[in-house]
Amino acid sequence: MIVAVLDATVMKLFQLWDGALSPNLMLMVIVSWALVVELREGLAWAVIGGIFRDLLSVAPTGSSSLAFVLIVIVIDMFIPKLGWRNAVIPPVAVGAATFFYDIMLFILLQLVGYSRPFFYGLSYAALPGAVENIILMVFVFRVVAGVNAFFRPPRATAF
Amino acid sequence: MINRSPRTIAIFSAIGISMMLIILSLIGMLSPAESAGRVPLTFLEDILGGASTSFEGTAAEIAEIRALRVRNAELEQALIDLQSEVAELREYRSDYDRLAQLLNYTTREDWNYVAADVIGRDTTGVQAIHIDRGTRDGVEVGDPVVSEAGLVGRVTEVSATGAEVLLITDPASSVNARVQSSRDNGLVQGTISGDLVLAFLDTEAEVRPGDLVVSSGETQAFPADIILGQVTSVSLTDDELFQEAPIDSLINFSRLEIVLVITNWEPTDLSFFDDDEN
């Protein structure tokens, strides 16, 4: 809930220019979470986070949930657990996820009557949004991984 | 044989729940739950939105002090010019009032305004703002939203304590408009970059940079005579069927802090004309 509210308030401070998308903090948190936890937990957070995000937008409730769920599934399929220890993976994953999320939202918003030019929208909003998300992901991922490690310290291996 | 592992069940459950939510939301069955869910979010947004707006405002003010000094000098000169114009207009106004009284013509000075703080922005890239007034304050879906510098947008979603306002700068917004000086009609549309364009202007229309554009009230989506902005340039469209003119709004939409919702504006029912066509 807090992340959704931060998205609608504090994140607007990071807008690159008027009218463009601001960074998608919820997406960064969901992708980070999907990289460090099991699939089922990632899916649960994707659904819940998406609902809160949609409550603060004109998109139908569930739109962001569906996009986040598909992103979590793709991450689970293509990025093996602990693959995130490679520092390049989280920013690359969030960059690709940003485009996927924006395209999904574009289609759903189009269906409910919020029309906008597709390619111009992608280059004007999704591209700068992806760049901002990639940069901020370096910090967001560290925080999420830290929180996960704090609450779930790795178990000692039995010899 | 169907794979019924916990992973597969989790995947299909998550997709199913999301799709079910979308369908229920689209047909309106989630409206009461969505309204209730927005109440705590609006409360938190109010707190965090106020803090971030203050921070943003302070940072911007520091950066703009020099520009403001120059602007101040310009405005002082403009004030002197305008004062003489106001004196002239007062004369016209008294003439107008007398004539309006004779014709029993009523002006719309009886609008009820509800002042609202801007507490957040839409999170999906739609150019919309969140305000801290809702049905409890008399705000309803469709209410026009203005600021002291002109038309801001229209309420699209509302809960008990907050509402979402689709800005006129969104590509999904369009406002019937007219150029104040030449009385030429057109349609002010939003763009993905957050700018405004006066489109569908007749090729014969005499529009010049600096002309003021106001809402025309046609189609009754918005009240008439609310300022939309100033024409910056005029050009023919690619197909040369119309002229179009980028509009510079007097409102800085990315720094809106307080807006006014007109809560008692009732559009004239135009469905009568639709019935005639059938």
Question: What profile does the largest beta sheet of chain A have?
Answer: none
Strand content of chain A: under 5%
Low-confidence stretches of chain B: none
CATH architecture of chain A: Orthogonal Bundle
Described by the principal axes of the CA atoms, the overall outline of chain A is globular
Q: What is the CATH architecture term of the largest domain in chain B?
A: Beta Barrel
Give the tally of structural domains of chain B.
2
Can you write the helix and strand succession of chain A as a string?
HHHHHH
Average per-residue pLDDT of chain A, rounded, comes to: 79
Approximate helicity band of chain B: 25-40%
Task: List the total number of helices of chain A.
Answer: 6
- Give a count of the beta strands of chain B, DSSP E runs of length 2 or more: 13
Strand content of chain B: 25-35%
Q: CATH topology of chain A, which one?
A: Arp2/3 complex 21 kDa subunit ARPC3
Distance between the termini of chain A: 42 Å
Helix-strand topology string of chain B: HHEEEEEEEEEEEEEH
Discrete helix count of chain B: 3
Which stretches of chain A are poorly predicted, pLDDT < 50 over at least 5 residues?
A: none
CATH topology of the largest domain in chain B: Thrombin, subunit H
Q: Name the shape of chain B in a single word.
A: globular
Instruction: Tell me the strand order in the biggest sheet of chain B.
Output: 1-2-5-4-3-13
